[in-house]
Specification:
The complex is a heteropentamer of chains A (521), B (166), C (103), D (488) and E (613).
Chain A: H1 3-20, H2 26-45, H3 49-52, E1 60-68, E2 73-79, H4 81-104, H5 109-128, H6 132-141, H7 143-153, H8 158-187, H9 192-201, H10 208-225, H11 234-241, H12 244-269, H13 271-297, H14 302-321, H15 326-357, H16 373-386, H17 393-408, H18 410-435, H19 441-444, H20 451-469, H21 475-489, H22 503-520
Antiparallel strand pairs in A: 1-2
Chain C: H1 7-27, H2 31-56, H3 60-90
Chain E: H1 5-20, H2 26-51, E1 58-68, E2 71-79, H3 81-104, H4 111-130, H5 134-152, H6 159-190, H7 195-203, H8 213-228, H9 237-241, H10 246-255, H11 260-267, H12 269-273, H13 276-299, H14 303-323, H15 327-354, H16 372-385, H17 392-407, H18 409-434, H19 449-464, H20 470-473, H21 485-508, H22 512-519, H23 521-528, H24 533-580, H25 588-612
Helix pairs in contact in E: 1-2, 1-4, 2-3, 2-4, 3-4, 3-10, 3-15, 3-19, 4-5, 5-6, 6-8, 8-11, 8-13, 10-15, 13-14, 13-18, 14-15, 14-17, 14-18, 15-16, 15-17, 15-19, 16-18, 16-19, 17-18, 17-21, 18-21, 22-23
């Protein structure tokens, strides 16, 4: 029973508890869920310990218990530098989501908060599971509450969006299930570590054909979740229709399930296939970056705009992963967190605007800065973070990703960097149309942020600056874990660079080879 | 001799079978069914099935068919209204299917059946009531007993479905 | 005129009867007749049993067909009861009229 | 010829469950005239007692495995598994029927008696080791079910269901019999073990073809009973027409028993000629899944929808049969158990909701149930999620296990197509969830009375079962795995 | 030496004003704003004094910013002679402009906002010049861009202002695109971004005669520079940037930020010197910009626009200097330009302030008697920019032109011509503003001391600033170029000629200008409308992009193609369902037929075909 188990199961406990609270006492339920989620967050902070004060090996807080004996399915959870931060992201955002929904969710509040906590349970589990089956279980479990969050508390076309979301993801995850099972039949275990070991020492040796198919089975499932162009169309609908909290959890954490899966399973388990497909995937990622930005630019609906911007941002993550360089991986992981924070904040603030003006259409606004300077400032900072201004979080991620990509193939970097320009276009334009200009009558009636809303925004903004400035509190722990994954797929093994092997890569080779030796021991 | 008898009664059986299908009036069909059963009983005898032949006459032709006729009378079911359109599927496809089915079975019978000596009357004596009874109360005791439940259900069903409102 | 009849003749006879039963089921529109066609099929089956137990010189086939008769009797009772209820409710025995539930 | 004709005590112990149920059934029939038909609770409790006694007996019998009654019966894990399963289904049926019968003013004594007999028949099927026993068991179970399907004799839909079920059922049985006749003629025996041996040893090419023909004809009979394509056609009409609790029963009990027989015959007796029937079962499985899932997409009558869904689920089990390995058998067993749980639950809700004369059987009638009766809806959601195959429910694990078996047998494409099918299935189950939670309550929901104790028990038990099978499948899985060695 | 204090002071000022400014009285705001800048100015002076001759670079390491694999980015600050010049200019001029703003912005609301932005700008600008590696430089680079965006959009109620802001930011982003790509290449090539490491490595590389890595790097850097320093093709944002308050134009869009490109290029001299091709590009782009902008400047009537284009043109000069290898000259001109151009803008600001916001030269005239100080100080600035002998502009500009002559004589002559035009339009503006009759309707008045004081200081600097021998000071870093008195005098002469021509047109012979304009109408309108460049960009880039994104990508691909397919699948499966359910005709005999059919199929499949497998 490690701290991690506690963090995983507290949300479930809280969920069950809420079910037994009388639905009339909405206030009490709200308070309870806030306290609970905060407690979880505090508890999860403890997970950082080993990473800041000491050097855990590959995994920390490992628990490995038998769950089902045949087929051998184990409750094997642990965290490494990658999971750690994603878990923290989840635990941080849940209380914020509770706060966000404090006033906006009045009808059926009990169920709402219950589902929110159930969602947290699923999400945390996904990031901690080191048993493929367990991973899949959490993966699917997280699907259900989100379905209800969208479908019950969403806007007009919520049902369409919810069903689309569910079926879309379901289709993908079914393929993954086939993959997982097939792998099991070859390996005789679901245990991630064992499978990795087996794949490396050749005791599990799928033919290249099989490897490719397995890779695709996993990849498609993850790509849908990411979402990677052209599998992204569920995202805008889901976002637009979801309640604020739903959008936040969806954008900030759920999409990361996909990229996390790519990094944790797809790439390391099927390195050769991954390497051979990288060309196509990177192309899709880059298309997604530019395409998402361009489409975002012309959206009349704020949430849709942010949604498409997510498509663009997540493109960077995929790009980083499939550059197979240390910088690319670190950047990708860091970008996941950044996107979680900044896009989450964007959705929250759009939510604030919606609560005030009851419209998501950009045309309904204009001149909002005059009545609500504080909101305007907060939004400004978040927007700047999201378009990758230095000293704010996104910049670091994008820089690392692009740098990593450039090391492998400079052209990719060139195209991807166009996305950075475009992001400025749509965001600034949005900001201008919403906040600048003369305020219309209804707009000037809007109230500025109140204390609760401050309490939501300030932590996120602080985090943006922190993550942009003092990256060393995060990246080292990430690097150690990504280096492990990088080992078998490292781009340095065969880079096709025109003027020989770049100095940077030469340096990197020696460095990460050293790392591998360390891991070997 | 055997062959002659077989051919005669087989002929009758087939004829009655056809008429069962062809007749529009249920009573006619019922009678032709009895005809089939009768001729089959003879063929059973030929194959050494004394007991079965008897049972065939008593149970089938006797009991069951009487029941049928009784019901037909009860509901005084008239001839089918031929005006009614038969679904296309049933009419044409059905015809073809039938042919195909028969063809298949006969082919299997012809091609696959191991060639054994032909049927000679009295070549098989095992079908006596005694033999059957012995088997029935030893090896096949359990099924025999269980069939009682079947009858029970039949009674029960008849009561449940057909009794007058109380 | 051969002294003995090939086994296959019996089997083909039963096949024909079975086929006729099927035909009856498909072509007759009177529920009772349809039901009788089933009985015809059962008879065909019985013939097969008897024939085979002749070739095998085993009595089990007879017993089997005996059980078939029992079952047939039971089915007859129940079946006719069901037909009665249908008739009570619909005043018809035309099988095509009993198709309210579809698709 | 087996040595002992005089059955010993052990023999009787081995068929004690059947005996108990038959006795109880008879007892009820005797009681009815004595205490009068309106003492419903009395009959209910007697029936329950009978079932529970049978359950205990079935479990107890498992300690005395082996053949009995001169190889007519075999008591093994497999048999016990299905016995327990069908008896449990019977219990739940009783629980959810009691107030339905009261509601419809239908005589309950005969109903329970028939139920008992039918379950007894299914137990016989589960234990049968002889085609004769299989045939008789099948007939007992079926005939009783025919009657139950038409139990409300003044209800047009009931009659129609009964008639269709009966006519087509007997029609298919005729094929089954014809098949039996042929296998008898080919192998000279109707004993599964002997058939297996014959096919393994004395199999000339011709004999194998004949056996194949027989297998084909028997396949028709079994496939019909389990409503597998292309013989699924009867199911929707019958499920829709029959009384809700009977549909509950039909979709779980007889189906499970039929699958038990199916497995026993095809894995044990026809094991040697697997290569002949495996491809066809493969395609039949796929066809079944496709027909079930896609046709269900447009159904509005929830009973009919569930009928199609049960066809689809039969398809999943067929996949397990197509895998024809031990894992497959275990998977099929597990899946049928899980399916029984969730389906019983779902139909219990429908029974509860449909009201007098089954007024409300459309999906849209459920509007807002989630907020009118949260508990009912929550439980219903569990069943639906399990039917979709969401983890932590029995449905998911069963499905996973089946496709694992399929992949073991290298049926990769079947697995992929099957799982994609279940993504399609998600769509129509979600529709029900949508209606329950995302539509505002209509008068159908507002006039809904609270759960009756019987149905409440059923629901909770079923939900519990679904979840336990999903979270701790080992409990059942180990047993299934150990008793899945058919013909070994 | 605690270099970090230099940028930190303004940052503090920004935080204080930004967070609490709303509630603070103006006096406190002024205190924080000006005090912080003053402090950092003081600290700069102290540091430079303390560091002495600065023969070698002085570096301070603070902390590691990013560390991933071999990629390590430290936050280091460094001072060398180049930085020293920039520091002095930025903090010095910055301080003066801060003081000036107190007067200029007195009536504006959002006072605190203005100053906090201004301080933030100072912070980033100082980070930019102090940076010891490309990424930290990039931080300042982007940061100043942000502040420029914020300050241009300072009047955020006005659409044109916010639009100008966006334009500035986005155009700069295009430049940054180049810059960042350059960084990626540099790291890829040298495995580091640290100036010392990188440039030392570059020194050992052979000079490239083709488009090799170094050349590509340099061109990308150049793209960045053109964005920030408003060179062709990315100069379009600068004129619009005049939408901001005038002090902003002075500080950001004249004196400091826009010269960042020049600074960065000079900083990367080590690269450029090994990439002659890139050098030529720099020179040509510079020259072209200088010339084109000058021509546009001839016809502008908005006083700030005139100076804006002259800024563009002067920046062009600097690039010519860099391009022909006279880095020191370029930097020299950067400094002097900072003086006189800041002065020009502040002067213009004073005029506008005196006329209550009037910016149109045609609405001015005869202001000399109303605002003498402004007029005189502006006159000094005009002389300086015209390269009038012994003013600051004379030395710096001529240093550039001479170097240009060394490189390629024709460049020199173009430069001289441009110089003439410059002199002409600057004095045109001065004459139109201060001589003749007042044509406006406002009540002109002289500005308060807080504004005129900085003006006078700057006037002094722009007159004598040329005697600070920057090229010599930068000698250890960049090779000094030969003097050539002869050429210097020619260009000065042309400048004077330009002044006289302006006098002729706008004082001596009024209306001559108009008749002249009519005479060559076509050219005039073309120039007056800035060669329709903005319109061109709009028509060719912006509008098509938006249109395509909306109609093709969003409506077409996204909603139409992809979603269409997805939903199509849904509809299809419904379709399949609707067909499959037709099997259920409800008719028993049809069902029977199905059973038979099925059984036949089974018979064939299992009875025979099955065996084949």
């Amino acid at each position: 029973m490690t701290l991690l188990d506690l963090v995983i199961f507290l949300p479930l406990a809280a969920f069950l508890l809420i079910l037994f609270l009388p639905k009339e006492h909405v206030e009490g339920i709200r308070r309870f869920s806030l306290v609970a989620s905060l407690a979880i967050f505090v508890a999860s902070l403890g997970l950082i310990g080993p990473y800041w004060f000491g050097n855990p090996g590959k995994l920390a807080f490992e628990t490995d218990l038998p769950w089902i004996n045949s087929p051998a399915i184990r409750y094997h959870v642990a965290i490494d530098g990658i999971s750690l931060w994603l878990v923290l992201l989840t635990t941080l955002l849940t209380p914020l989501c509770v706060l966000v929904s404090w006033k906006s969710v009045q009808k059926r509040a009990k169920e709402f908060f219950a589902f929110l906590l159930l969602l947290e349970f699923g999400l945390i589990g996904v990031f901690c599971a080191f048993d493929l089956f367990l991973f899949f279980v959490f993966w699917e479990v997280s699907l259900v509450p989100m379905y209800f969050l969208i479908g019950v508390w969403g806007h007009e076309r919520r049902i369409y969006a919810a069903v689309k979301f569910f079926v879309y993801t379901m289709a993908g995850s079914m393929l993954m299930l086939v993959g997982i099972t097939y792998l099991y039949n070859q390996a005789g275990t679901f245990d991630y570590a064992k499978i990795m070991a087996g794949l490396q020492n050749g005791s599990i040796a799928p033919t290249y054909q099989e490897q490719l198919l397995l890779f695709l089975a996993f990849f498609i499932a993850f790509a849908i979740k990411v979402p990677l162009f052209p599998l992204h169309t569920w995202l805008p609908d889901a976002h637009v229709e979801a309640p604020t909290a739903g959008s936040v959890m969806l954008a900030s954490v759920m999409l990361k399930m996909g990229t996390y899966g790519l990094l944790r399973f797809c790439v390391p388990m099927f390195p050769v296939a991954a390497r051979n497909c990288s060309g196509w995937i990177v192309t899709l990622a880059i298309i997604g970056i530019i395409y998402g930005a361009l489409v975002a630019m012309v959206q009349p609906n704020m949430k849709k705009l942010v949604a498409y911007s997510s498509v663009s941002h997540l493109g960077f993550v995929v790009l980083g992963i499939f550059s197979f360089t240390q910088q690319g991986f670190d950047g990708a992981v860091y970008q996941m967190l950044n996107h979680g924070v900044s896009t989450g904040a964007l959705f929250i603030m759009v939510g604030f605007l919606y609560e005030r003006r009851h419209s998501l259409e950009i045309d309904a606004y204009g001149g909002v800065a005059t009545p609500t300077p504080r909101l305007a400032t907060a939004f400004m900072i978040t927007m700047l973070a999201s378009i990758g201004l230095p000293m704010l979080n996104n910049f670091v991620g994008e820089f690392l990703v692009l740098q990593g990509t450039a090391l492998v193939n400079f052209k990719w970097a060139v195209f991807a960097a166009i996305g950075v320009i475009l992001s400025a276009c749509y965001m600034l334009w949005l900001y201008q149309r919403v906040f600048f200009g003369k305020a219309s009558a209804e707009v000037s009636a809007l109230k500025d942020l109140d204390l609760r809303e401050y309490a939501i925004c300030v932590p996120l903004i602080i985090l943006m600056v922190w993550m942009g400035t003092f990256t060393q509190s995060f990246i080292p722990s990430i690097s150690t874990s990504t280096a492990v994954i990088l080992g078998p797929v490292d781009a340095k093994r065969d880079v096709h660079v025109h003027n020989g092997l770049p100095a940077a890569l030469r340096a990197q080779r020696s460095l990460s080879l050293a790392k591998e030796q360390v891991d070997a021991r | 001799m055997t062959a002659l008898i077989f051919l005669i009664f087989a002929g009758i059986a087939v004829f009655c079978g056809v008429s069962l299908v062809a007749q529009t009036h249920p009573i006619a069909s019922a009678l032709s069914l009895i005809g089939v059963m009768g001729s089959l009983a003879v063929i059973y005898l030929q194959l050494g099935g004394e007991f079965i032949a008897a049972a065939q006459m008593i149970v089938y032709a006797g009991a069951i068919m009487v029941l049928f006729v009784f019901v037909i009378m009860l509901l005084n079911a008239g001839a089918e209204a031929t005006s009614r359109q038969i679904p296309l599927l049933s009419r044409y496809v059905g015809m073809f299917l039938l042919a195909a089915f028969l063809g298949l079975i006969s082919f299997i019978i012809q091609a696959m059946l191991p060639k054994t000596e032909g049927v000679v009357f009295g070549a098989f004596q095992g079908g006596t009531a005694a033999a059957i009874g012995r088997k029935l109360f030893t090896v096949y005791l359990l099924p025999f007993e269980v069939t009682s439940v079947l009858i029970l259900i039949a009674i029960l069903g008849a009561i449940v479905l057909a009794r007058r409102e109380v | 005129m051969p002294a003995s009849v090939p086994i296959s003749w019996y089997l083909i006879l039963s096949a024909i009867l079975f086929g006729l039963g099927v035909a009856g089921f498909i072509y007759r529109r009177n529920i009772i007749t349809v039901f009788m066609s089933i009985e015809l099929m059962l008879n065909a089956v019985n013939l097969t049993f008897i024939t085979f137990s002749y070739t095998l010189k085993k009595v089990d086939g007879h017993i089997f067909s005996f059980f078939v008769m029992v079952v047939a009797a039971a089915e007859a009772a129940v079946g006719l009861a069901i037909i009665l209820t249908v008739f009570k409710n619909r005043e018809t025995l035309m099988i095509d009229d009993v198709s309210s539930m579809k698709y | 010829m087996p040595a002992n004709f005089a059955p010993t005590a052990i023999d009787y112990l081995r068929i004690l469950p059947e005996i108990l149920m038959i006795i109880t059934g008879t007892l009820i029939m005797v009681l009815e005239p004595l205490i009068g038909g309106n003492k419903r609770n009395a009959f209910t409790s007697v029936t329950l007692v009978g079932f529970i006694a049978a359950l205990v007996a079935a479990v107890a019998a498992n300690d005395y495995p082996g053949l009995s009654f001169s190889n007519m019966l075999i008591v093994d894990g497999f048999a016990t598994f299905f016995r327990v399963l069908v008896i449990a289904v019977g219990i739940f049926t009783v629980l959810s029927s009691s107030d339905y019968l009261r509601r419809e003013h239908a005589a309950s004594a005969e109903y329970y008696a028939l139920l008992l007999f039918s379950v007894a028949g299914q137990c016989i099927m589960a234990t049968a080791n002889e085609l004769i026993m299989i045939f008789i068991g099948l007939e007992i179970s079926s005939i009783a079910t025919y009657i139950l399907a038409g139990y409300l004799r003044d209800d047009k839909r009931n009659n129609e269901a009964a008639l269709k079920y009966f006519l087509l059922g007997s029609f298919a049985t005729a094929f089954l019999l014809y098949g039996i006749a042929w296998i008898y003629g080919t192998t000279g025996s109707t004993n599964l073990g002997e058939i297996r041996n014959f096919l393994m040893t004395g199999g000339s090419a011709r004999n194998l073809t004949l056996a194949g023909t027989a297998a084909a004809l028997m396949f028709v009979g079994f496939a019909f009973k389990v409503s597998a394509a292309p013989f699924q056609i009867w199911a929707p009409d019958v499920y829709q027409g029959a009384p809700a609790p009977v549909t509950l029963f039909m979709s779980a009990g007889p189906k499970a028993a039929a699958f038990a027989v199916f497995l026993r015959v095809f894995i044990t007796a026809f094991g040697p000629i697997t290569n002949r029937w495996e491809p066809f079962v493969w395609s039949s499985a796929l066809l079944t899944m496709v027909i079930g899932n896609f046709a269900a997409l447009l159904q509005n009558n929830i009973k009919r929808l569930m009928a199609y869904s049960s066809i689809a689920h039969a398809g999943y089990v067929m996949v397990a049969i197509a895998a024809h390995n031990q894992v497959g058998v275990a998977a099929a067993m597990f899946y049928l158990a899980a399916y029984a749980c969730m389906n019983v639950g779902a139909f219990a809700v429908i029974t509860h909701f449909s009201r007098q004369g089954e007024k409300y059987v459309n999906v849209d009638d459920l509007a807002g149930l989630g907020w009118k009766q949260p508990v009912t809806a929550a439980l219903f959601s569990i069943f639906l999620l399990s039917l979709i195959g969401v983890p932590l429910t029995g449905g998911f694990f069963g499905k996973f296990y089946i496709f694992k078996a399929a992949l073991d047998a290298n049926l990769v494409w079947l697995s992929i197509l099957g799982l994609l099918n279940s993504a399609v299935a998600a769509y129509y189950y979600l529709r029900i969830l949508v209606v329950m939670y995302m539509h505002e309550p209509g008068e159908s929901t507002l006039t809904l009375e609270p759960l009756s104790p019987g149905i409440r028990t059923t629901l909770w038990a079923a939900a519990l079962g679904t979840l336990i099978l999903g979270i701790f499948p080992s409990l059942l899985l180990n047993f299934a795995a150990n008793s899945s060695g058919l013909g070994k | 030496m605690l270099l970090w204090l230099i940028p930190i002071f303004p940052l503090l000022g920004f935080l204080l004003n930004g967070l609490f400014g709303r509630k603070l009285p103006k006096s406190m705001i002024n205190l924080f704003a000006i005090g912080s800048v003053a402090l950092s100015f003081a600290w700069v002076v102290k540091t430079l004094v303390g560091l002495g001759p600065l023969e070698t670079k002085y570096i301070e390491h603070y902390f590691t910013w990013i560390q991933s694999g071999p990629l390590q980015i430290n936050v280091d600050f460094a001072v060398d002679r180049l930085t020293a010049v920039m520091l002095m200019v930025v903090t010095g001029v910055g301080l003066l402009i801060h003081i000036y703003s107190v007067g200029y912005m007195a009536e504006e609301d959002g006072y605190y906002r203005f100053f906090s932005y201004l301080n933030l700008f100072m912070f980033f600008m100082l980070v930019l010049v102090l940076a010891q590696n490309f990424l930290v430089l990039f931080v300042g680079w982007e940061g100043v861009g942000l502040c420029s965006y914020l300050l241009i959009g300072y009047y955020f109620l006005e659409q044109y202002a916010t639009t100008a802001g966006n334009k500035a930011f986005i155009v700069n982003r295009i430049g940054d695109f180049g810059f960042s790509l350059a960084m990626f290449l540099i790291f890829r090539q040298f495995g580091s971004l640290d100036f010392t490491k990188v440039f030392d490595a570059a020194k050992n590389m052979p000079s490239e005669t083709t488009y090799g890595t170094l050349t590509i790097i340099c061109l990308l850097l150049l793209l960045g520079a053109t964005g920030k320093s408003a060179q062709i093709p990315l100069y379009v944002w600068l004129p619009d940037a005049m939408a901001g308050p005038t002090p902003v134009s002075a500080l950001i869009h004249a004196a400091t930020m826009v010269t960042a490109g020049v600074y960065m290029t000079a900083r990367s001299a080590a690269f450029f010197m090994h990439a002659p091709i890139a050098m030529d590009w720099v020179a040509i782009i510079g020259l072209a910009t200088a010339f084109v902008a000058a021509t546009i400047g001839l016809a502008q009537t908005d006083i700030k626009k005139v100076f804006a284009y002259s800024t563009v043109s002067q920046l062009g000069y600097m690039f010519v200097g860099l391009g022909v290898g006279a880095f020191s000259a370029g930097v020299f001109h950067l400094m002097t330009h900072a003086f006189f151009k800041a002065l020009l803008f502040l002067g213009a600001g004073a005029v506008i302030h005196g006329l209550h916001g009037e910016q149109d030269l045609r609405q001015m005239g005869g202001l000399f008697k109303h605002m003498r100080i402004t007029a005189i100080t502006l006159l000094c600035a005009s002389f300086a920019i015209s390269g009038f002998p012994f003013t600051s502009g004379f030395f710096s500009k001529d240093a550039i032109l001479v170097a240009a002559y060394e490189h390629a004589p024709w460049m020199y002559w173009v430069g001289v011509l441009t110089a003439g035009m410059t002199a002409f339009y600057v004095f045109r503006a001065w004459f139109m503003a201060f001589t003749g009759e007042y044509r406006g309707h406002a009540h002109p008045h002289e500005s308060p001391l807080v504004m005129t004081g900085p003006l006078m200081l700057l006037a002094g600097l722009s007159l004598v600033g040329g005697f600070i021998n920057i090229p010599h000071w930068l000698e250890p870093m960049f090779p000094e170029k030969p003097e050539n008195q002869m050429l210097a005098w020619i260009s000065a002469g042309v400048g004077v000629a330009g002044i006289l021509l302006a006098y002729l047109f706008y004082v001596a012979q009024r209306g001559l200008a108009d008749s002249f304009a009519k005479a060559m109408n076509g050219f005039y309108t073309l120039v007056y409308n800035k060669y329709y460049i903005d319109e061109l960009y709009n028509a060719v880039v912006v509008r098509p992009l938006v249109a395509i994104s909306r109609t093709v990508l969003w409506r077409g691909v996204d909603a139409g193609l992809i979603d269409g397919t997805v939903n199509g699948v849904g509809t299809r499966s419904r379709g399949i369902g609707s067909i499959l359910r037709l099997l259920q005709s409800g008719n028993i005999r049809t069902y029977a037929a199905w059973v038979v059919l099925g059984s036949i199929v089974v018979l064939i499949a299992i009875g025979f075909a099955g065996g084949s497998k």
